[in-house]
Structures are given as structure tokens and as C-alpha cells.
Amino acid sequence: MAGIFRGWTSEQKHVLAASFLGWSLDAFDYFLLVFVLKDIAAEFKTGITEVSLAILLTLAMRPVGAFLFGRAADRWGRRPVLMVDVALYSVLEFASGFSPNLTTLIVLRALYGVAMGGEWGVGASLTMESIPPQARGFASGLLQSGYPAGYFLASIVYGVLFQYIGWRGMFMVGVVPALLLLYIRQTVPESPGFNRTLAATSGRTLEVLRRNWRLGIYAVILMTAFNLFSHGSQDIYPTFLQVERKLSPHVVSLIAIIYNIGAICGGVLFGSLSERFGRRACIVAAAIFSLIVTPLWAFAPATVLLAVGAFLMQFAVQGAWGIIPVHLNELSPDGARGTFPGFVYQLGNLFASVNATLQTGLAAALGGNYAVALVVVVAPVALIIVIVTILGSEAKGTPFAARAAS
């Protein structure tokens, strides 16, 4: 590990740490909801499918945040926009705990989706433009592992605190990420790849996006499949364990911790391997591996085997995802790196946002068979990822700061 950071400046290490924490704590706030769907449904006297609309709208609103915060980052810089974004999603998470009814909660989760949508693209561009080029694969895997790391933290909070604080208290704990503002303000510099001269050119971002519309369409298709891959394997998995397998909150929490450890390991490993074997080859390998472990993940007869399958599935899913931050940033056109990666990622989220409602509705139609609902989504999109990735291109190792200044 020490060798990976050889030659890094203190500022570069702080940038990676801040971006990792920003995405981890954002994911932490998001995943608190997936553990308490049935509890919210019980309090508001409605069904789980109706409550899952909050997840749908969170995902659907993320492209709005990616575009607005991305444009702001391309105009005024990555660092100040990241700080505003972290503050906003923390406040909205805290406010969710005071929702008097389901409608209010859904509105707050939609607004939270705007803030959540802004964090990933800004943090990823700040990181990729700041670190040594040869470390991008590792940094990409580590940065994307912030997502399962946030899920991991949410799993612990659910297992330890839920019985004492309930679902409202879970959301109130979500204000903790606001503390990250102090760290960013004191230690994180602006990206060296952010060019203030180009940023001052009115409308440049939109112009760049228009010129690269074919690349944009390809990236949105890829990210739609990726988001179905991730959310299809994660969002209702705790509900599957609770409702179909009848497992206790403690066991559900333990399994979630196990599979998020797998996700973190997969993200870092495949991200690092992509530096040697290429971005597309490693994405394809991870997606194929997910197909191999799908039966164990969804249909294992024993709880221990189910946990093993969940570990391996998230190792594969987040292994593929670990390459996405660097892959999208390297493909991104100059002048729009604050906007392009996050916007196409979150547009993919928009098209995949129906996942939770689709899976819970399908499970209900099948008499509570969540296992089939999980597999019907995840297996096909894994195949789609393999095909779309093979048909695409990559720009491994492309220089950022030099291109931005040219």
C-alpha cells in the first residue's frame, strides 16, 4: 500500500480521502432508507411498493443534481461546489427524519436525490485531475468503494441502533456527513485540471456536450445497465432477507456487512487490475463472474451459503463499478469533465430508477418471491454490460491537466 502512494503530495492524498469520504457518506445516507422500507410502510399504513417510490425518485432526480452541480464545478471549481453539495445532502437527510407523512418523505428524498447526484461527478473529477496518472486505476477502485463503504456503515447503524432510535433516528444520524466540510475546507486544494480561463467562456460546457453527443448516448446506455446492475442487486436485498427468508435485523445487518466487505475488496482489486489489463477487459471479467455466482446469491438453501453468495456477488458488481470513475473521466471530453461523467452516470440512474418499484412489484405478483425478482433484473443486465463494454472504447492513461490547459 505504501508503494502505491509513493511520490504523492500531501494535498493529493487529502483530495482522494475527501472524495472517498464524500461518496461514502452520501451512500451511507442513501442506504439508510433501504433497511427501513417495511417499517416506514407500517407507520404510514401503506405497502412496501408505495414506499419504494422514495427510492425511485431519489435515483430519478440525481441527473438534475449531476448537471447543475457539474456545470457549477466546470464554472467555479470542484472544491467549493463539493462543499455546498455535502452540506445540502446532509441537511436533507436530517430533515427526512421529521417527515409527518409519506408524501413529505418522498418529496424530501427527491430533493436529496438532487444533492446526491451532484457529489459523484464533482468528487471523481477532482480526484482524477489531481492524482498521478499511473495511480488512477487504484484510486478509481478506492473511490467507487466508497459506495459499498457507505452501505457498510448503514448496515452497522441498522444492526446496532435501529432497535433504539427507529427509522426516524436513522435519518437523523445521517447529518454526520456535514462534518466533512471542515476537512475539505482545511486540507483540500482546487483541482490542477480546472482551467479558470476556459471556465469563464460562457456556454462552453453545453457546446462540448453537443459536439460529443454520440459518446454521451453510448455512456448513458452503459451507465443505465450499470445502475440496474448495482441497484438491482442491492436495493431490495435486505427486504428479500427480511420478508422472504424471515431473518432478524441482526442477521440481515451481518449479511449486509459481509457483502459490503466483498464490494470494497472487489472495487479496489478490479480498479487496480484495470491499470494493467485495461478498463474494458476488467469490466467484462467482473460481469461474467457475477453470472457465475448468481444462483448462490439468490437461491442458496442455507443462511451461511447465502452470505457467501452475497459476498461474491457484490465483489463482482462493485468490482466492475470500481473501474467506472476512471473510465468515464478518461472518456470525458475536455472542458466538461466536471459535468460529463456525473451527468451520464446519473442519467443512467434516471432510466434505472424504476428498479426498486419494479422488483418489489414483481415480487408481490409472484407471491413474495423476491429471489426471482432479483435474478430477473441482475442476470440480463450483466450480459448487456459485457456486450456494450466490448463494443465501446477506452482512453486509458490520457493526460488531464495538460489537455485542460492546452
Keywords for this structure?
0% strand, disordered C terminus, globular, Growth Hormone, Chain: A
Short description:
The chain has 406 residues and is mainly α.
The CATH homology group name: MFS general substrate transporter like domains
Do you know the CATH architecture? Answer: Up-down Bundle
- Computed over alpha carbons, the radius of gyration is 20 Å
Distance between the amino and carboxyl termini? 34 Å
Question: Can you give the helix content as a percent range?
Answer: over 70%
What number of domains? 1
Largest sheet: none
Q: In CATH, what is the class?
A: Mainly Alpha
Average pLDDT reading: 87
Please count the helical segments: 21
Provide the structure class.
mainly alpha
Structure explained in plain terms:
It is a single chain. By secondary structure, the chain is mainly alpha-helical. The protein is built from 21 helices and no strands. The radius of gyration is 20 Å and the shape is globular. The model is unreliable at 402-406 (pLDDT under 50).
List the helices and strands and how they pair.
Blueprint: H1 10-31, H2 37-43, H3 48-51, H4 53-76, H5 78-96, H6 102-130, H7 136-144, H8 146-173, H9 180-187, H10 196-199, H11 204-211, H12 213-234, H13 237-244, H14 249-277, H15 279-299, H16 303-321, H17 324-331, H18 340-352, H19 355-365, H20 370-391, H21 401-405
